[in-house]
Amino acid sequence: MTQQPSVTHQPLAAPPPPIPPTPSHPPPQPSESVRVRCAGCRMILTVAPGLTEFACPSCRMPQMLPPELMPRAHQAAAARTTTPPPPLHAPLPSPPPLPLLPSQSQNPHVPAHGIDPTKIQLPCASCKAILNVPHGLTRFACPQCGIDLAVDISKVKQFYPSVLPSVPPEEVNELAVEVERDEDEGGLLGETFTDYRPPKVSIGPLHPDPVVETSSLSAVQPPEPTYDPHIKDSLESSKALSCLQIETLVYACQRHLQHLPNGARAGFFIGDGAGIGKGRTIAGLIWENWHHGRRKALWISVGSDLKFDARRDLDDVEATCIEVHALNKLPYSKLDSKSVGVREGVVFLTYNSLIASSEKGRSRLQQLVQWCGPGFDGLLIFDECHKAKNLVPESGSQPTRTGEAVLEIQDRLPDARVVYCSATGASEPRNMGYMVRLGLWGDGTSFSDFREFLGALDRGGVGALELVAMDMKARGMYLCRTLSYKGAEFEVIEAPLEDEMMDMYKKAAEFWAELRVELLSASAFLQDKPNSSQLWRLYWASHQRFFRHMCMSAKVPATVRLAKQALSEDKCVVVGLQSTGEARTEEAVTRYGSELDDFVSGPRELLLKFVEENYPLPEKPELLPGEDGVKELQRKRHSATPGVSVKGRVRKVAKWQPPSDVESDEESESESAIDSTDSDDEFQICEICTTEDEKKKLLRCSCCGKLVHSACLVPPIGDIVPEEWSCHLCKEKTDEYLQARQAYIEELQKRYDAALERRTNILEIIRSLDLPNNPLDDIIDQLGGPEKVAEVTGRRGMLVRASNGKGVTYQARNTKDVTMEMVNMHERQLFMDGKKLVAIISEAGSAGVSLQADRRAANQKRRVHLTLELPWSADRAIQQFGRTHRSNQASAPEYRLLFTNLGGERRFASIVAKRLESLGALTQGDRRAGLSLSAYNYDSAYGKRALMIMYKGIMEQDSLPVVPQGCSSDRPETIQDFINHAKAALISVGIVRDTTIVNGKELGRLSGRIIDSDMHDVGRFLNRLLGLPPEIQNKLFELFVSILDLLVQNARIEGNLDTGIVDLKANVIELQGTPKTVHVDQMTGASTVLFTFILDRGITWESASTMLNEKQKDGLGSANDGFYESKREWLGKRHFILAFESSTSGMYKIVRPAVGESIREMSLSELKNKYRKISSLEKAQTGWEDEYEVSSKQCMHGPKCKIGTFCTVGRRLQEVNVLGGLILPVWGTVEKALSKQARLSHRRLRVVRIETTEDNQRIVGLLVPNAAVETVLQGLAWVQEIDD
Fold it and tell me: Compositionally biased, Acidic residues: which spans (predicted)?
């Protein structure tokens, strides 16, 4: 066999390994040390208990214990975790110390090797020698005993962990593992916002309010400003723009002078938060371009009301001569024609108009491109451009027309100066698909298209998004400042359901479950199945809307209470909600008239509408009264014959086939008769006497179309020929048929009536259900009616309580003096003037509206902003919070976010949290800085895994990893009971499908399945959850959350939790040498730089003892505070620590000599288990100082660590390499280099922030593990050459 020499063996298992060499000696217990012979120099070694891998002290050969000597504990543990099948086809008995086989003596001088890490180590099935087998080799002979062996690849994977690309097995030093875990978590992020001042542009007054920037962005400097604005002098004298706004203007104009590699003009992205004054900045840009002769601009925004704001902003910058034309008021003809007369100025339009077209098929987009003309180089402004975000939707859905239109207009106007404006545009990388003018992907970048760019960002996690923002800022195409939320107060208020509401909710949940069963059985009765997927889609959509309504209504009492309390404290109130329930109100008004007894109940109207329109009824049967019926029937029966019209007259037809083969002969003969009608219309043949005659002399059967002489019939028909005549055969058939049909129709009618009755009963039940009123009307009513409450929403009319308090009437929102279009502006003004102290805003009505305590407004009371309903997406939440928190305000608002105590409702919070987290806007700090909203983010990768684990547990395919709430592990029947309830609940909300009751013996055992797409769909789970009675709803939710917490905690322990940007902390951080520039961007001259830092993380004996003394001096210490040493030795040494009780009782903070304070706290039991307290301070001091010294040069794994000098675990002096500056161009290179790293924790792209201790220089960038620096630099050299 040719490959044989490549299989080497180690005679580790050769006798006599155990000493003393008694054949029956049992494998040693883990508590004793083991003695073995070295595979290299044959010296006898003593191996410490628990060690399985070691290096010989004399010849330095790395090796591992032979299988027989693996401590029994290891084997037992291995056996518990699914005993792996043997990897070789030969049987593998449990081996006693082996006698020499005869074949071994034939081959006595096989040279022994140690473990070769590039190969797989497998035991020979016969002689048990450990063999080094090259990857991919499947058949060979054992070099020691000569037996032929075959490797079963499928089993090797389970059998031997080192089959994974050779990750060197660590010597398991538990303390080292602990320290490494801590280092991986990095330091806590400090304040994530820093105050902002324009670093390089100094014109203009200060901004009226404190403005901040994320601290990662503040680590990047924008390029040098070279553009000199034309309107600088007028701005300086009028002070219309603040220095922040002028900075944006300068960088945008500067960026517009550049072109992308594909020839299009580069675009600029204004990412400022809500309320910084983007509108005024845009007005400034338009005014600047006007002075350069670019007299046309397109301004695309979300609502047509904002046209008035655009006008106001232009007036503020003294651009009064520039006209603003609202496109929705203009015809579809040419804009610059004589009749329309728009020659120059700003055309203001909404995203909806961008995709609009007239009846004649003229499109607005075409009209705008034509108006701009060829070579248009004016401004194209996408205000609130997140509207176009779904250009690249998640898999499975279609891109929106808005997204496509935004892309198309940019293509058609390649030289336009594009400005993207959105506070939330870059918070979700998927939403950047339409920003093609930023040049982040495509020609000349490291990503060929947007999908590739997106993939790279997703792998980089939250930190990657920050890097993209930093990159854009460094290249001068992005600015993002947020109003400081200092002074704004956030409070999450749980509004528990009141008893009455709880009861209402329970009944509603039960009703929906029964309705589902009812619909299932009703549709099963139908002959022709209606489109059932449509029915269920509508059912679940209504279900979700219904329970969202219920959640909102549940919060009305709390909202009213908080609002009244705020008004009594001399503040004013803004209530935010998403939907107004207008559609339901209008339906009710059309149904019951405009005067009603009480406000409309949204949930009730929704249910009524759904059941009325979608209850599956059988077809209504057609009744056949008397003689007319017969004729009708004959027509009906023969209208299947294409040659005969319904009236019984012959139509011109193409040749037709007989209806079927089983018809009587007469029928088939009649074919020819009808055939001949084609050729000769005048003469026809009588079917009885078969003579030919003129057509008009023959009678024609209105049923089968036969032609006969009236005289041939028996009895003959007289002179008066009836108009409708049918032959005898047809008549007979008809009578029989009629009787059967009559019975059938009666049966159908019965079914129809029964179904109708059931529907009526259901509608009656719905009408009798106690359901809450429309929240919007309810709140307005309870806070004093429309006279006291300003309403800024999209609805046209509202219900108002009559003056005598009885009944309500429907009236339009506008009055004679105010047009419908202006009603929101009018209401807003009343609120800002202090005439109304409560405003209610919906999403539709409030886009871009300012309601802050403006210093220019009469009403400067502090705003209390209550969110009754959190929006579906956090983008919108930020937009909603931005209504009351804006520039130039007298006081910052107080936010009160209301949730009910229903598990499922936190869903809405979760989406919002997800986004606030990546925006860092409201959480003020980092996700680890205590419990912020981000505790509610469930729709993550971990959430999906937790959901799957929970479903599998409930479906009894797997055991649940946590004990459900209210159950105990000692009483398994409680858990079984919970599982049965949970399964029933999931069936009632349609997550478990195809349910059938199994045979009678096991009644109550439900079968069913959860389809794959539902297994990971957290959104669907949380939406459907709302439709369960509160008790089981909360139990299921608690179970889901506890599994999720467990997963996240495990991920944190394993060090692969994406924690965003990590702060590297140490006592001393110094920059070493001069930073190396490794890449320069051609277009902007921005560069990528490699920084090398030296960190000293140690704590001297003096500072450690001072720490302890201070604790004891303050009297805060506990009896267990003090110095400890590890109970076990590693490499002949014990580790020393200082432990003192932390603020969480029973938990201890740990300080180590080499790496300082640990992030993770330790419980007292763990502390006492691993360490023992040292009473003598001298011993502690020598141990501490010794470890402090040794750790300056070497890691905790000792001098023989596999990664060698690159390893930093537990090293006091640490070298850290960070790539700062532009990261996107080199992203791929770094990712490739990291994927080859030996340690798993080094393969992850990690974004870190580091600040030097002397001169406070802050760098944010990618952490490059020391072992990967070389590879990265080689890869970057390659990037450089290509560019050169």
Answer: 662-678
No. of H helices and E strands in the chain? 37, 45
3-state secondary structure of 1137: strand
- Give the three-state DSSP class for 836: coil
In sequence order, which ranges of 571-706 are alpha helices (DSSP H)?
582-592, 602-614, 626-638, 665-676
DSSP calls for 850-889: --S-BTTSS--SPEEEEESS--SSHHHHHHHHTTTS-SSB
Helix (H, G, I), strand (E, B) or coil at 931: coil
Q: How many residues does the chain have?
A: 1284
Give which of 1082, 1203, 1210, 1071 is closest to 1154, Cα–Cα: 1210
What pLDDT band is residue 406 in, cutting at 50, 70 and 90? Answer: very high
Q: CA-CA distances (angstroms) from residue 968 to 965, 975, 984, 1045?
A: 8, 7, 21, 19
% of the chain exceeding 70 in pLDDT: 76
- Token pair of 191, please? 């304040």
Cα–Cα distance for residue pair 986/764, rounded to 1 Å: 27
Give the CA diameter of the chain.
Answer: 139
Rounded Cα distance, 865 and 792, in Å: 14
* Cα–Cα distance for residue pair 884/571, rounded to 1 Å: 13
Tokens of 567: 């008004």
User: Could you give the C-alpha distances from 477 to 105, 433, 963, 1078, in angstroms and in order?
Assistant: 77, 16, 52, 22
> Residues 215, 1249: contact at Cβ < 8 Å?
yes
Structure confidence at residue 259 (pLDDT): 94
Residue showing tokens 């579809």 = 332
Taking the C-alpha atoms of residue 240 and residue 281, their distance in angstroms, rounded to an integer, is 10
Other CB atoms within 10 Å distance of the CB of residue 623: 10
Q: Which long-range contacts (CB under 8 A, 24 or more apart) does 1117-1122 make?
A: 1117/1141, 1120/1148, 1120/1164, 1120/1167, 1120/1173, 1122/1173, 1122/1174
Q: Give exposure, 781-808, as e/b (b: 16+ Cβ within 10 Å).
A: bbbeebeebbbbbebebbbbbeeeeeeb
Is-contact 87 159, C-beta < 8 A? yes
pLDDT tens string 417-468 = 999 998 776 666 777 888 999 998 888 788 888 888 888 887 777 677 778 8
Q: Which two tokens stand for residue 380?
A: 């194209």
In this structure, the strands spanning 1213-1221 and 1087-1096 are antiparallel
Buried b (16+ CB within 10 A) or exposed e, 205-229: eebebebbbbbbbbbbebbebebeb
Question: At residue 1178, does pLDDT exceed 70?
Answer: yes
Residue 573 has phi, psi (to 5 degrees) of -120, 135
Burial of 940 (0-12, 13-18, 19+ CB in 10 A): middle
Q: Which two tokens stand for residue 1250?
A: 């580091």
Please report the DSSP string for 1060-1109 in residue order: SSEEE--SEEEE-SPPEEEEE-TTT--EEEEEEEEEE----HHHHHHHHH
Give the Cα-Cα-Cα angle 1237, 1243, 1248 (nearest 5 degrees): 125
What pLDDT is stored for residue 69 in this prediction? 67
| Residues 355, 345 contacting (CB under 8 angstroms) | no
Side chain identity at 1143, as an amino acid letter?
S
**Hey, what are 862's tokens?**
């502090």
CB 1096 within 8 A of CB 1064: no
Show Cβ contacts of residue 367 under 8 Å, excluding neighbours closer than 6 positions: 332, 334, 335
**What would the two tokens of residue 391 be?**
């250009």
- Cα torsion 658, 659, 661, 662 to 10°: value is -130
Label each residue of 1249-1261 as H, E or C.
EEECCCCCCEEEE
Task: For residue range 956-980, list pLDDT tens digits in order.
Answer: 888 888 888 888 888 888 989 999 8
